[in-house]
Amino acid sequence: xxxxxxxxxxxxxxxxxxxxxxxxxxxxxxxxxxxxxxxxxxxxxxxxxxxxxxxxxxxxxxxxxxxxxxxxxxxxxxxxxxxxxxxxxxxxxxxxxxxxxxxxxxxxxxxxxxxxxxxxxxxxxxxxxxxxxxxxxxxxxxxxxxxxxxxxxxxxxxxxxxxxxxxxxxxxxxxxxxxxxxxxxxxxxxxxxxxxxxxxxxxxxxxxxxxxxxxxxxxxxxxxxxxxxxxxxxxxxxxxxxxxxxxxxxxxxxxxxxxxxxxxxxxxxxxxxxxxxxxxxxxxxxxxxxxxxxxxxxxxxxxxxxxxxxxxxxxxxxxxxxxxxxxxxxxxxxxxxxxxxxxxxxxxxxxxxxxxxxxxxxxxxxxxxxxxxxxxxxxxxxxxxxxxxxxxxxxxxxxxxxxxxxxxxxxxxxxxxxxxxxxxxxxxxxxxxxxxxxxxxxxxxxxxxxxxxxxxxx
Length: 458
Known about the structure:
The chain is an alpha+beta fold. The chain has 14 helices and 13 strands.
């Protein structure tokens, strides 16, 4: 096989997949407004990476084998579209799970490696389907009144398994090729049917994906972030989907049900931290720009807020650097980032992000959400007045300041900004999950020894 270009990618989606949005089934994604921009983003990514030749493959299939290669991968993925990033992180998570399972379940580890090779050879894009519907949250999977609340095996055949359930919050599922299904949590004895991991083509019989999106339908100039960066969010229904044995990576072995979630969390949190370091710098830039436009850049509390934002961005980036610097190899020679520094950095970045946006809003003021549309500038009657009254200090015209306000609103307070505010917390698992992993990998014995030494108890 060979790499696909953008046109071939778009053609590959005409495969009979069942996609729904806004109350109707979508027969042609390219013709629907909700999917047009996301398809273009992914197709452009294919074109950017395309190389001819049967042996060519994208850099997103590279497995880091040193700390330098891991750092290079993180630098590169900052330039990729979301689907390409998700593919890289998801497949590396699978390999991480394979490395951790190999001693106990070598057959599954080998299947994962073959699946990785299959995706690479066919230049496919994958998403990770992990979050279940969960039903009544106070009950475990085995005690739900509706057993379908968690994705589970409903039938075992000689050639494979049949699964049923739903997976929620799966970004870009409809515009990808493969769904990598994983257990959402650790399963206990008696919950073997819920300990299932496998790979399913998006067009497999029984798969239906219902979509929503924050993509603006009009006034793109007022949504400079949302109009250029958006992906559909998929609610995946798995209605008795058959999975052949070669695509099954876990089928009842509860001891490894958390392995996949932990592996995926590691890579999603690493990539998320990298993006949040960039977002932190963007927030600083917007804060400084709007302060200068407003003429408030020398006011003490404004300077202090921007200084705090600078420290935030720097600490997020330093945590990311520490995660790479403390990376360690698996027995296969694959390098994985530090669990401790990755989780600590992601937790700090996510938990403090809301405060940083609050600082930006405080610095910018109410016009962030009340400024007239860019189109109003062209109105012959009110346009000149808008330009006059939206002007800031000398040298700052009304349109410049207006565009800054719309950028801040879209990036932090509306559409893309609202999506980011939630996903900053939830991507890679919530803050509690990151605290658990950070505590698990922290050297508590060393900390206790220091305490005993200080107390004269050594």
